[in-house]
Amino acid sequence: MPPKVDREKCDGCKAQQEPLCEQVCPGDLMTLDDEKKAYCRMPRDCWDCMSCTKACPVGAIETRIPYQLGYHPAKLIPMMGTNTITWTCIDINGKVERFRYINRGRLD
Amino acid sequence: MEKVVPKIGIFVRDPGGRMAASLDLPGMLKRLGKAKNVTRVCLLADLAGNASLSSVAEGIRNGEYDRVLWVGRFNTEQQKAVEGYLEGFGLNKYLHMWCDIEEQGALNQKVASEVREKKALRLIQMALARTRLLEPLAPLEIPAVDAAMVVGGGIAGLQTALSLVELGKKVHLVEKESGVGGKVAALHRFYPRLCDPLCGLQFVVDRLRASDRIHFHTLSQVVSIDGGPGRFQVRISRRPRFVDLQRCNACGECVEACPVEIPRTPEYGAFGSWAPLEGAPRKAIGPACPMSFPTAFVVQREHCAPGCKECEIACPAGAVNLEETATHEDVEVGAIFVTTGWDPYPLSRVEEFGYGLYPRVLSNLEMERLLGGDLPPLDEVGFIQCVGSRDERHLHYCSTVCCSATLKQIRFLKDRMPHVRCYVFYQDIRSPGFQEELYQEVKALEGVIFVRGTPSTVRPDGDSGRLMVRAEDTLSGKEIRLALDLLVLAGGMVPSRGTEELAQVLNLPRNRWGFFEAHLQCHPEESQRTGIYVGGCSREPMNVSQSIDSAHRAAMEGLAFLSGTVLVSPTYPLVDKTKCDKCKRCMEECPFAAFHFDREGFPEPDLAKCRQCGNCVGICPLAAVSLRHMTIKQIAAQVQEAAASFLPEGEPQVLAFLCQNDAYHAARAAVEQGLPVPPNVIFVKVPCAGYVNNALIADALAFGIDGVLIAGCQDGQCHYVTGNQLVRKRSDDLSDKLQKMMIERDRVRFVNLEIRDSVGYVELTRSFVEELMAMGPNPFKL
Predict the structure, then answer these.
(1) How far apart are CA B191 and CA B53, in angstroms?
(2) For the residues B239-262, what does the mean pLDDT come to?
(3) What is the 3-class SS of B545-588, one letter each residue?
(4) For B346-491, CATH number?
(5) Stretch among B189-203, B525-539, B693-707 having the lowest mean pLDDT
(6) Cβ of A93 under 8 Å from any chain B Cβ?
């Protein structure tokens, strides 16, 4: 399932040529539309790697996880610190699990 | 880069034994001695007499430690003295770390001793974490040119130029008209001394002229700018004058020969309108305007008859060259002073008074001209105040000078024609300061009537041509009908034409009325672009003496960039090119537009422009920008240390990022005043709230801190213009994310705090702690 962009939040990385999500996407799927908002141009090709979700500076991108992993409203949300990454997993029953990793090297 | 293993000496100073009274000092020192990288822990007796300092120096000399963490209260003078002393022993100034545990309330006797102990240790550990990452730094010196540019040759520009010239700087004065003098040259008299402005102008111009450091660029405009403070490269384009400045001796033969007469234009401000209302019209060739300096004549080519060369033939000096073309010149300057001044509000837009339709309706500037020449026969004269100003349909602001200008004009009119009856239609008379005296003087004159109220209709009388004015005196409630010989409209001030264009060239922000924006209290003459200063009426409406004040202040403020070198503190931002992906957000959001692209396309701050607020650090989505000596890595290390618990089970732990300009002082004062600050809060001082990167907040939450508080200045009071608004937007985004993550969004909070609001700080932290208590522990707490 493709990344979903909150159009109100997305500022197209201030309407630059290449927003951060476009730079980081390994499949080169994210791009800006006419209104300078990011979108996934080929949703079927998305691997759900969540790079764009992690990179978005305004937190506008959410990855809908594939149904094989969890039906709506299951969610997987990353939060990036300077050298930490935390994951919040919410399953279809609303049960929440959280993980924290120290991601050494991000600041080095 | 080679990995350096830091060796840290910790020195604790406890004069008066306040620390020893609240904490188990020996136990704490022992624990600190075991901390990583710490090679020496010592309790200092006293700083006086350098006896203990020389023992500190000894350890530096024999390499026992290469950086020092000072624990205890040191005032700025002591810090400077210690840094200076130890610099002699080879310890860089930036390898000191100062940790005042008292300002965070760790010595508060009302708090349980266990919490106190643990909090003190936490604070020292935090400082220690940052000390490990300190780097030696040295201030930078950027070469600067000792020439300045002044844009606009009115009274403010001339005075700025004069100040700078007298201080020994070279000045390029750029004026778009053919002569200098600006609006003041058109005035008949100016208050408070009611002298002839030409005398004051002449005085300045003569002194400038005598200097060989000034260069006048008339008929010129700034077209492009490059470089930064200390070394701006400016291109000036010059329109042709058609007369050689060197050869012309202003004999006037050409004016005799010129067949073209230029009619007086009704709107003020155009080239020809400076001519007196009555009298000889201007010719296409004539003296420079508004003041005949430079003395060379100028041809208004657009008025010339096709093929006419009369002046060229007539000129005995051979100075006229009608084939001259536009040229440009490149100059390098250290600072730019913008004194582009004002224009009168176009009075024809205020339709009800018939300006431009009826010949007997004049603007106050035309009245100045009239007062300077022959007066027509007059009996009744009306003055309408606030025409355009303080009017929601026109200008929202008060133009500040028009009331006094009218009073001045009445005084001169009454001097020359004592029988004239003057009617002043006003909303409020605003004659601030000593100008009140002028008001009282004019009010006491016979035949001067002040009517509170604005005329509703102005109509010319068919036969006599007099103006029939109808108004209501709102004080008495009576209707007044008058027949006036002359009606003078006191029009408001707007930024001069060309301000917008110049703002684009120099990338200067303007306020909503089009005047240049400056930081009113702190740097009144400094624009939001470092090295560019704004003075006089280009900043706000002011009278002549205020403009001159402002001009001199601007010159003083700009001197820093004209003195050979610009000193830059080494705490500037540094972009990590291995991480930066050129998203350009720092360039977009830097309040001072200090970033530009380097050769490889990475953003690079112009260090002379940068004011080191750290907004770029906060903005960077990849945490790739760091202020030196306050790197994001150092702060992240502190955040991680702060997260270890020092409170009893169940008590929420709060990390606060406080702006060092306001909120930090409020927090400090709260502790000093003995206010009940909750012990749950540990704060980190940041240069501006805008420094706080979302990644730091995420770190804090990930490590289990229950709540994060960011305190910045009140809106509109931020020293760095928009730092607080930027961080508010970002923390809101983060809160939204927390909500999605099923975490209470209020765990991250941005607040405005004033510098003296220590009670507010206590209230805020207490309610925050209570709310967090109700929310329960941070779900990431492991």
Answers:
(1) 62
(2) 89
(3) HHHHHHHHHHHHHHHHHCCCEEEECCCCEEECCCCCCCCCHHHH
(4) 3.50.50.60
(5) B189-203
(6) no
Predicted local confidence at residue B281, as pLDDT: 63
C-beta of residue B598 within 8 angstroms of C-beta of residue B587: no
Q: Say if the Cβ atoms of B583 and A13 lie within 8 Å.
A: yes
Q: B301 in helix, strand or coil?
A: helix
- Structure token pair of residue B324: 């001259």
Q: Looking at A15, A28, A43, A47, which residue is catalytic?
A: A47
CB spacing of A59 vs B736 below 8 angstroms: yes
Is B654:B595 a contact under the CB 8 Å cutoff? no
Q: What share of chain A is helix, strand, coil (3-state, %, to 5)?
A: 15, 30, 55
DSSP B714: P
Are the C-beta atoms of B155 and B548 separated by less than 8 Å? Answer: yes
Please say whether the beta carbons of B516 and B496 come within 8 A: no
Residues near B186 by beta carbon (within 8 Å), at least 6 away in sequence: B274, B290, B365, B368, B369
Contact B702 A82 (CB under 8 A): no
Give me the mean pLDDT over the B105-111 stretch: 88
The strands making up B478-484's β-sheet, listed across from edge to edge, are: B457-460, B467-473, B478-484
Domain boundaries, chain B: 147-238+335-342+495-561, 346-491, 570-782
What is the third-level CATH fold of B147-238+335-342+495-561?
FAD/NAD(P)-binding domain (3.50.50)
Task: Give B376-397 as a DSSP string.
Answer: PP-SEEEEEEEESTT-TTS-SS
Per-residue pLDDT tens over the stretch B765-781: 999 999 999 999 998 88
Distance from CA of A43 to the nearest CA of B (A): 23
Pairing mode, if any, of strands B67-71 and B8-13? Answer: parallel
- Mean pLDDT across the stretch B473-497? 92
For residue B694, what is the nearest residue in chain A, using CA coordinates?
A: A81
Touching check for B692 and chain A: CB below 8 Å?
no
B518-519 and B448-452 beta bridge pairing? unpaired
Residues of B in contact with A88 (CB under 8 A): 741-743
pLDDT string in tens for chain A (108-residue length): 689 999 999 988 876 678 889 988 999 999 999 988 999 999 889 988 999 999 998 999 998 888 888 888 888 999 999 888 999 999 888 899 999 888 765 555
Residue found under tokens 């401000």: B269
- Which whole number is the average pLDDT over B12-20? 87
Neighbours of B411 (CB within 10 A): 18
Cβ of B325: how many Cβ atoms within 10 Å? 9
- Look up the ipTM and state it: 0.92
Return the number of CB contacts < 8 Å for A and B: 86
B147-238+335-342+495-561 and B346-491 agree in CATH topology: yes
> Mean pLDDT across the stretch B723-752?
90
Does residue B623 come out as left (phi exceeding 0), alpha (psi in the -120 to 50 range) or beta? left
Average pLDDT across chain B, whole number: 89
